[in-house]
Design a protein that fits this description.
5-stranded parallel beta sheet, 48% helix, alpha/beta, 9% strand, 324 residues
Length: 324
Amino acid sequence: MRSFKRVILSVFCLLFILAAANTVLNYALIPYSYVRIMMHQITTENYDTVLLGTSHGLNGISPKILEEQTGEKTINLCLGGEYPRDAYYLLRQVCKKKLPKKVVYELDPGYWCTKEGQRGDFNRIYYEMPWSEVKFEYFVNKMLKLDFRATLFPWFYYRGQLKNTAKIISCKQSKDYKNFGVQAFDTGGQKFSDGFLKNFPVSGPKEEKDLVLWDKKNKNKDSFQYFEKLATFCQKHHVKLVVAVLPVPRETLQKYQKKYQESDAYFRTYMKKYGIPFWNYNHPDRQIEDFDYSLDAFTDYEGHMNMEQAEDFSVRLAQDLKSL
């Protein structure tokens, strides 16, 4: 009996040590992220308009300008690596506090023809999301299916940050971190301000390596499934849903004209099937007058806008939203 008790005690001690080590590694290796700010905002504030989508939306839409133009409280929840599955659960989390009036889903066709993987903020949404039935459902339908290690050992995806542990710990001990501040995100090339990630202009050659074009043959069924869940959720709760494709450089459109035309035709028909407004700001019927579509106004061929362009675009988006 004593031997059995010693075994049980040893197991509990081992589990305690592992849990403590896991906590320390999470604290030391996982950098401060604006996802933490976003999650704090949606659990403490009420919003009328919610922006969902990818890094194009994160860099390209200013919620502050939308608020000023429409008078509706707005939050930008777009993220690099955010697939429709993530967007669906982010919206569900928002709605635990209050149903918004509008949802703008920024559509990047590349996320509808590539598989979800360990990129961008793959596990940060789950990591920062407070415990609830939404988080449990998100765990079952994403984390458990793709990689359970992201749940048990979040630090695993940040082990490359080992050399930055002193900086990460210092940041997390600062008043800025404790008060959900944004000083840590001013890197010189970008800064998180006014609710979105602002890009400073980039001179010289622009990157094209991350450009992923629409490919109908490689459709990601999960992206379609979860977008339709999102659309059904909005319809059920009388939330107006709009889908927007943000501007990309003229040079990109000319170089890959056929792919962009195929993408526009496909998603225009798809959204019409579900009665969802589809605003493609690269299409002639919605191109913006006096808007700089040249590569100079973007940081890359993919279409991440400079901050001034993003603010100009946000004025136009706000005007369109007021017309609904």
